[in-house]
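User: Predict structure, ligand pyridoxal-5'-phosphate.
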Amino acid sequence: MSVKNNLRNILAGLGSVQLVAVTKYAVPEQAQELLVAGHFMLGENKVQSAALKAEQYKQHPVQWHMLGHLQTNKARQAVRIFELIQSVDSPKIAAALAAEAAKIDKRQKILVQVNISREPQKYGAAPEDTETLLQYCAAQPALELLGLMAMAPDLADKELTRPYFREMRALFDRWAASYNLRILSLGMSGDYQIAVQEGANMVRIGSGLFAEGQR
Ligand SMILES: *Cc1c(COP(=O)(O)O)cnc(C)c1O
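Assistant: Predicted complex:
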């Protein structure tokens, strides 16, 4: 399957759900194939990789999404590259992004990342700390808080990811009106169909687009 065919098949199943194509493991030719096919919403885990690729693909109107953990010393570069930073996980990084965005008169769009599975190796605010972080972000004029992002644990039986997505949907519903949340970013190649069934309106797919064969 070509990248273009994978894209077409995935989009056909998504309806109005937005697709972030995660290019972290894609070779430039594969990402180019996506861009030529008209898909411009791309995700990366590292500021450095996005900076490099933004330069490589600059003839295309790419909308970059940041998906990985951000260090405060990368905030300056991040606000210059990313349309949406999905991985805001502490007041500290929110403050750094707000300060850097203000300097360039930008209102940086962000999502708050929740560590819904409470895995120690995963980033994201603990569920019980999430509302404090939402309050903090909502109070920053240079940040535009749009929603929540989370990852399910990597489980062999994908059906077991469902409770995590359901819990995220419940958190989203609890806070959507107070914080004007619109985006619920859940689901990767292996589990995005379950995430969509549970209410995700944005999915992030890498290997399902770019790996040989199809998932
Ligand atoms: C890598 C990554 C993805 C995509 O993962 P695939 O399994 O390749 O689809 C999605 N979200 C985040 C946060 C990632 O780091």
